[in-house]
Design brief:
mainly beta; Immunoglobulin-like
C-alpha cells in the first residue's frame, strides 16, 4: 500500500515538471526577433525599438545589453532592467550610418535570469541613406498667355532619399527675357530627407511667337545628378491703342487732313476731335471694340465723348469728339480689345490730354442780357478791334468784335487769345483764353454792359481768373459788381510771371465804371 502511493507521487512530480506553466520562473520574449532600421540618414540618429516581455510567473531581471561588434554605428539607448511577471517594456536603440548605400550589421545581446534562455541575441541591420531628388513637374506648358499678365507655375524640388541632398545650382536658360524664374527664391542649398522646396517660373509675354526655357537643377544625387525642366508658352499680345486729338473742321472724319497731337490746350466750350483708327493688333487680328474713357476731368464737368454714328462701320467707335464744358484738365484714354477680348495696355500713345489754357478769364452775370468781356493787351486800348478778322487781326482788344486776333508771334496762332464763348442773351459765361502770355506785361480785364437787347435792367457781374485751370481770383469776392447798361468797368489787371507759371492779379473792385456805348459796335 505504501509503495503504491510512493510511485503515484513520483509520477505526479514528473508530469508537473513537463508543464512550463507549473514552474515559478521568468521567461523572456523579445520582439521583433530582428531589428531592421531600414534606410537611415547618414550621420544622424535613426531610432529603433524592441519590446521586452516577461511571460513567466516570476520577475525577469536583465543584467546587461551588449552590442557586438562594438561600434558607434549601433548604440543602445535604454531599456528595462526588471520586469514583473506578464509585463513588457520597450528598449530603444539608434542606428548612425557612416556612408550612403553601406549595409551595417551587429547583434544586441541581452543577458537575463531566464533559466531557459539566459542569453537572447537580436540581429541589428541598417543601410546608409541615399540622396534621391524628385522634381515635379518636368514639363510646364503655359499655353496662350495674354500680354500684361504674369502667371506663375510651381516647380517642387524634393529629397525623397534618406540622406541630405545638396542642390548645388539652378540654371535658367530661355529664348526670351519674358520667361524666367521668380527672383529672390531658392537658388541652392541642403534639403534634408523628406523635405522639399518650391521655385516659380513666371511668363510675361511682350513679343510675338512662342517662348521656351530650360531649368537645369544640379545636385549630388548619385543616380540623377542633373534634372531638366522644360517650359514653353505663347503670348497673345495686346492691341496697340493709338490715340490722336485734332481740331474739328467741316465734314471732317476723325482727324483726316488735320494736325494730330496728343496734348492740346483748349478753352471753354471748345471741341477736340479724337481718332483711334491707327490702332492695330500685333498678331494681325481685327480690332473687336474701341472705347474712349475720360479718366481725368474737372469735378463738375459733364463732358463726354461722342462717337461716330455710323453703325455699319466696325470702327464706329474709333472716332469722336469731346467738348470742354468746365475749365480744367481732361485725360482721355483709348481702350481697344482683340478677338480674344484682351484690352490694350495703358501706354502714352493711347492717351490724349487736354490741359487748360495758361490764362483764362471768365465773366458771368445775373440777368438775361448782353454783357461783354474784353481783354486788352499791354499798350492796347479798350475798343481797339482792328479789322476783326479771325487769325489775322492785330487789334489789341479781344472781345465779341475781335474774337481771335493775332498777337505776339505773327507766324503762329498758338500764343493768341480767343473769345471762346459770346453770350448775347443769357447770364454767361463769356470766356477769353490765352496760352503763352507775355512775361511781366499786364493785361487789362474789362466788362462792358452792352445791353444790345435793350433790357434796361442793371446787372451784377463777376469775373474769375484761372491760371492753368486753377482759380486764382474772383472779383468781386462777394456778390456781383453792379453795372448799368452802357457802362464799362476795369475789373482787373493780370500780369503773367513765367518763372513761376503764375499770375499777379490786381483787383479793380474799387474802380468806377464809365459810360462807353460805343463799345457795342465796331
Amino acid at each position: 500500500m505504501r509503495s503504491g502511493v510512493y510511485f503515484c507521487l513520483v509520477g505526479l512530480l514528473v508530469a508537473c515538471a513537463d508543464d512550463p506553466l507549473s514552474l515559478v520562473n521568468p521567461r523572456i520574449v523579445v520582439e521583433p526577433t530582428t531589428l531592421d532600421f531600414g534606410t537611415g540618414i547618414v550621420g544622424a540618429d535613426n531610432p529603433g525599438m524592441i519590446t521586452v516581455r516577461d511571460i513567466g510567473q516570476a520577475p525577469l531581471a536583465i543584467s546587461s545589453y551588449t552590442i557586438e561588434p562594438a561600434s558607434a554605428i549601433f548604440r543602445f539607448v535604454g531599456g528595462p532592467t526588471l520586469l514583473g511577471a506578464n509585463t513588457e517594456e520597450p528598449a530603444l536603440l539608434v542606428f548612425v550610418p557612416v556612408r550612403a548605400h553601406e549595409r551595417s550589421e551587429a547583434t544586441l545581446i541581452i543577458a537575463s535570469n531566464d533559466p531557459a534562455f539566459p542569453i537572447v541575441n537580436v540581429p541589428l541591420i541598417g543601410v546608409g541613406g541615399v540622396r534621391e531628388i524628385e522634381v515635379t513637374p518636368l514639363e510646364i506648358d503655359f499655353g496662350i498667355i495674354d500680354e500684361g499678365t504674369s502667371p506663375r507655375r510651381n516647380i517642387e524640388i524634393a529629397n525623397i532619399g534618406g540622406d541630405p541632398l545638396n542642390i548645388s545650382s539652378l540654371v535658367w536658360t530661355s529664348t526670351s527675357v519674358d520667361m524666367g524664374l521668380v527672383p529672390g527664391e531658392f537658388t541652392g542649398g541642403i534639403l534634408a530627407p523628406g523635405t522639399s522646396t518650391v521655385v516659380h517660373v513666371t511668363y510675361s509675354p511682350t513679343d510675338l511667337g512662342a517662348d521656351s526655357g530650360l531649368l537645369t537643377i544640379a545636385s549630388d544625387d548619385e543616380d540623377e545628378p542633373s534634372v531638366v525642366v522644360r517650359v514653353r508658352g505663347r503670348g497673345n499680345l495686346a492691341p496697340r491703342a493709338i490715340a490722336w486729338g485734332c481740331e474739328i473742321g467741316p465734314n471732317q472724319i476723325g482727324c483726316d487732313n488735320a494736325t494730330k497731337r496728343r496734348v492740346w490746350s483748349l478753352g471753354l466750350r471748345q471741341r477736340l476731335g479724337v481718332d483711334g483708327r491707327e490702332t492695330f493688333d500685333p498678331e494681325g487680328a481685327a480690332i473687336a471694340t474701341y472705347r474712349w474713357v475720360l479718366e481725368t476731368k474737372p469735378m463738375d464737368s459733364a463732358a463726354a465723348v461722342f462717337h461716330s454714328t455710323d453703325d455699319r462701320n466696325v470702327r464706329k467707335r474709333a472716332t469722336g469728339d469731346i467738348e470742354v464744358d468746365r475749365v480744367g484738365r481732361y485725360e482721355l484714354r483709348l481702350i481697344a480689345t482683340d478677338d480674344r477680348g484682351l484690352a490694350s495696355l495703358d501706354r502714352p500713345e493711347s492717351r490724349v490730354t487736354i490741359r487748360p489754357k495758361d490764362l483764362e478769364v471768365l465773366l458771368e452775370w445775373d440777368v438775361g442780357t448782353d454783357v461783354d468781356l474784353h481783354v486788352v493787351r499791354t499798350g492796347g486800348m479798350l475798343g481797339d478791334y482792328g479789322d476783326g478778322r479771325v487769325g489775322t487781326s492785330t487789334g489789341t482788344d479781344v472781345s465779341s468784335f475781335n474774337r481771335a486776333p493775332n498777337w505776339n508771334d505773327l507766324g503762329t496762332n498758338a500764343d493768341d487769345p480767343r473769345l471762346d464763348i459770346d453770350d448775347v442773351s443769357g447770364r454767361g459765361p463769356e470766356i477769353v483764353s490765352l496760352d503763352g502770355p507775355r512775361d511781366g506785361e499786364p493785361y487789362g480785364v474789362f466788362v462792358h454792359y452792352c445791353d444790345s437787347r435793350n433790357i434796361g435792367l442793371p446787372a451784377n457781374v463777376t469775373v474769375r481768373i484761372y491760371v492753368r485751370g486753377t482759380l486764382v481770383a474772383t472779383i468781386p469776392e462777394m456778390d456781383g459788381y453792379p453795372m448799368l447798361p452802357g457802362e464799362a468797368w476795369e475789373a482787373a489787371g493780370v500780369t503773367w510771371r513765367q518763372a513761376t507759371l503764375g499770375a499777379d492779379v490786381a483787383s479793380g473792385e474799387a474802380n468806377r465804371p464809365s459810360t462807353r456805348p460805343d463799345l457795342c459796335r465796331r
